[in-house]
Amino acid sequence: MVERPAQRPAAVQSVDRGVDLLELLADSGGQATLSELATTTGLPLPTIHRLMRTLLARGYVRQLPSRRYALGPRLIRLGECAGQQFGADSRPLLTELASELGESANLAMIDFDMAVYVAQASSGHSVRMFTEVGRRVRMHCTGVGKVILAQLDDDAVRDIARRAGLPAATDRSITRVDDLISELQKIREQGFAVDDGEQEIGVRCYAVAVPDAPVHTALSLSGPDSRVTAEFGVRAVPALQATAARISATLTPSTDMRAE
């Protein structure tokens, strides 16, 4: 049976079940058979078939030649719009963080085998780091990327490394999957990641996870390594964690819905 929150507000059953099926497809790697969905949800196969047929007609799922069902292209637009709104909502908090610590603040989330930046706030320094919103970066050599990978299990990390590879951006980049796994375990234990010139020589970054985000998300502060030192990290990590918690709070769904 699919897990449901203990306190779920009153919902339209068919909509509720349709969303459950989309989430199950995502949790299954993007595709599944009707029987697999029926087994997981505990719903009758005819009910699953009826719901999937509706989602198929709307383009939110598609049927593969193997007869398995996969997430559909209509979800791409929704995801892009949601990501843009998430970035817009978070930017004031990033601006506050960048102002407090004096370095660029960045927000990124997982995008298939990469990380994509969804919001950025620059520091007031004349020499500062610019991260273009929408830019996709490899995860093994960036602070935000390593934090995102640390939220996955080791098998998932190995799968991403196999598909995307571990090319060296600099001579400090991690290029062996076993070394990456060891680094991720350290990140899980200490609660933050450091990119020490692994993406760009002369640039250091501290990053933390955004807790309870619907997709794996990370927040970072980056700048020249002459300013972003170990002493800077002592101040930066608690500030990052506090801001990440505030961002997480903005993602909490409201159950107080009133008709206009």
TrEMBL record:
Keyword Cell inner membrane appears in the UniProt entry: no
InterPro entries, A to Z: GAF-like_dom_sf (IPR029016), HTH_MetabolicPath_Reg (IPR050707), Tscrpt_reg_IclR_C (IPR014757), Tscrpt_reg_IclR_N (IPR005471), WH-like_DNA-bd_sf (IPR036388), WH_DNA-bd_sf (IPR036390)
This protein's record includes keyword DNA-binding: yes
Xref: SMART domains: HTH_ICLR (SM00346)
Single GO biological process annotation from the record: glycerol metabolic process
Domain IclR-ED: 74-253
Residue span, HTH iclR-type domain: 12-73
Protein's name in the database: Glycerol operon regulatory protein
